[in-house]
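Run folding on both entries below.
>entry_1
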Amino acid sequence: MTVSRNLVSGNTSMLLLKLLSEKDMYGYEMISTLSKRSNNVFELKVGTLYPLLHSLVQGGYLKGYDKEANGKLRKYYQITPSGRKYLDKMIEEWNTYAEAVGTMIGGVNYEG
């Protein structure tokens, strides 16, 4: 099933931070992992990924470093302590939002 870009775009930073909270990754690895773990629901393009990573680095949530892997120099990204706090906040907000949406569309009757 294809999901609207509008639903995905606001949460992409949270998804990237979540991936990087598990381990350091380089760009293509993030794209591949996100796609695989979401059963291809989240198919991030390079042109979307790198501006997001740049803004997360600028915000102090990530830091980048170069590392050689399989004979190639790759730019890896690592979540910072500020990034972990920001991720926790985003997950809390997401859970509140998801619960409210679930209540609205799940058929629970409102009795005010």
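>entry_2
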Amino acid sequence: MRVIAIGCEHTGKTTLLEGLMKWGDERGIHHHLDDHFSIPDRQFLKKEEQEEMVRLSPVLKERFQRFQVVYHVRLINHYEHILLGGFHIEEDIYGPLYYYPGRKSAHPPEYYEAEFPPDAILVLLTARPEVIEKRMRETPHDRPIVPAGDIPMVLEKFEQAYRASWVHHKIRIDTSDLAPAQLLQKFLDTSVPHLNTRDLLTRMAGATGLK
């Protein structure tokens, strides 16, 4: 599968992608996982490297983010199984709000989506604002991006971007009342109509105990 998971902080993107990674590994399917589009990158960078990234000027942040989005357009075409967290849509929302205020993203999401493979699946994860705020308090990120007061606005921006996206295969999941295992199963169930032939046969083989 080629999956792009988007949504406000604390809606479950990393939880879903890590769950899919484990699910795939258990079935001999290795997904390429990139969940590092937020600033600072928490997937690969050490603490001191994160500090350096945060200190970059707005101009350099915008340029770096643009370069890595372009690079991952290549990757989503290269890998048959790839999981991307946030990616181009998150950048189009978080960039002008938090990384380089006052500047627009160099290109709108559809600029990149025009080059996406046709079997890409866009997953919008959402949750009630009060649930996200509760998660922020109970399991805070080391470097939070979205202030509590911005939650409704950011949720709406992701909703609008999801609706406007050129990606054909779309799934929307409200994670407000879902445990991690339930979120994974919800995605697996709702993604079936969006699978390409190869992935559908793999899923069917797993369901019948052949894989």
